[in-house]
Design goal:
34% helix, 31% strand, 4 helices, five-stranded antiparallel sheet, globular, single chain, alpha+beta, 188 residues
């Protein structure tokens, strides 16, 4: 079991994300590389990982922090898909890159980390996971797949992007591939 704070795009935007996934899946299918694709309902952006257990005290602390947390509305944009963050960091993670003006998402993560008293182990890279390669891939496979994904971005996202306005931060419990939203906290 794991707990995290995350943002879930609305159903319309999740649907738009799911519509372009088959084009990227064909890259992996043509190479006989098995990939696990979560259903669109699970698409989310993880802000803070809270751990394998959430003590009652920590749950109260998180709730208090988020009840009073206000943030001005902003648009998050998706305009590309990437494979991994690098060859050495999650090379099998297929994800949408998420950007925003003025680093709003990074500011939210920084503020929440400070209020709740958690520390991130790795730099925050805004993304929405849309697949995981099931087997280890070699450096050559990674480079070739990454190049193919990048090339496809030019046609899929040519002059367009998917955008959404985060409306709530959710406290989520995940057990394997099952997610349960324990509580939603509006942020604007």
């Amino acid at each position: 079991m794991n707990y995290f704070l995350g943002i879930f795009p609305d159903e319309i935007e999740k649907g738009r994300m799911a519509q372009i996934l088959p084009q990227y899946a064909s890259i992996f299918d043509s190479q006989d590389i098995p990939v696990y694709y979560p259903e669109a309902a699970k698409y989310h952006l993880t802000l803070l990982y809270l751990g394998e257990r959430l003590s009652p005290l920590m749950r109260v602390k998180v709730g208090r922090a988020l009840k009073g947390f206000k943030y001005k509305p902003f648009n998050a944009r998706i305009n590309s898909v990437r494979l991994g963050f690098s060859q050495s960091r999650n090379p099998g993670l297929l994800h949408f890159t998420v950007t925003d003006e003025n680093n709003e998402l990074r500011n939210i993560v920084s503020q929440l980390s400070s209020i709740i008293g958690t520390k991130r182990e790795k730099a925050f890279i805004p993304h929405i996971t849309i697949g995981r390669v099931r087997n280890e891939i070699s450096a050559v496979e990674y480079r070739n797949l990454s190049d193919a994904v990048t090339a496809l971005n030019q046609s899929v996202f040519a002059g367009k992007e998917i955008s959404f306005t985060p409306g709530a931060i959710s406290l989520v419990k995940s057990t394997g591939s099952q997610y349960k939203i324990l509580k939603k906290y509006p942020i604007n």
